[in-house]
Amino acid sequence: MSKLAVPPIIRRTITVDVPIDRAFRFFTESFSAWWPPEYRIGAVQPSEAVLEPRGGGRWFERAPDGTECGWGHVRVWQPPERLVLTWQITGEWRYDGDPDHASEVEIRFTAVGSGVTKVDLEHRLLERLVGGESVHDAVGGDAGWHAVLRRFARSATKPPGAV
Predict the structure, then answer these.
(1) Most CB atoms within 10 A, among 22, 81, 98, 143?
(2) Is 101:129 a contact under the CB 8 Å cutoff?
(3) CA-CA distance, 74 to 83, in Å (whole number)?
(4) Strand, coil or helix: what is 138?
(5) Region label for 20, one of left (φ > 0), alpha (ψ between -120 and 50) or beta (otherwise)
(6) Which of 100, 72, 77, 74 is nearest to 87 (CA)?
(7) What integer best gives the mean pLDDT of the chain?
(8) In terms of Cα–Cα distance, which of 58, 31, 22 is closest to 157?
(9) What stretch of H or E contains 15?
(10) How confident is the model at residue 2 (pLDDT cuts 50, 70, 90)?
């Protein structure tokens, strides 16, 4: 029996009605404000999702008791145009610290008009993940990156202080 090949790339795009600088800042600095809280890998509902704003920074969730559960690292930090993250989460939804098993999530921000930004997300190297088929099916479907980007766009366009 041959092993099924994991499709290596997932691409999603959304347009956000905010300027490029605000889109990048909101995506990175307000990560916890828009990331779906049910999308976690730790045993406890996290109090926040964190994206450290620098190359080499961590990408993780933090529980109310302070315990942290890693998701990956910031590989490329180029505000306001580009961000590349490692995805070190297995098909069993556990952190895998082996960098040889990491996939990559690249997010590009492009100004496409006055106060409008196109956000392109590419999740690649899925074949490197342990259980990559499961990850591909989950993040490639409507409840995956598509839903995450829609949530980001809705949150980014709310007036400051709006709930």
Answers:
(1) 22
(2) yes
(3) 7
(4) helix
(5) alpha
(6) 72
(7) 92
(8) 22
(9) strand 9-16
(10) very low
**CA separation for the pair 86, 101 (Å, rounded):** 10
What's the predicted TM-score (pTM) here?
Answer: 0.92
| Type of residue at 87 | W
- Among 138, 89, 83, which Cα is nearest to 105's? 83
Measured distance CA(48)–CA(33) in Å, rounded: 8
Give the whole-angstrom CA distance, residue 30 versus residue 26: 5
Burial label for 121, CB within 10 Å (0-12, 13-18, 19+), is buried
Phi/psi at 22 (5° precision): -65, -40
Signed CA dihedral, 155, 158, 162, 163: sign only: negative
Residue 34: Cβ within 10 Å count:
18
Q: In this structure, which amino acid lies at residue 144? A: G
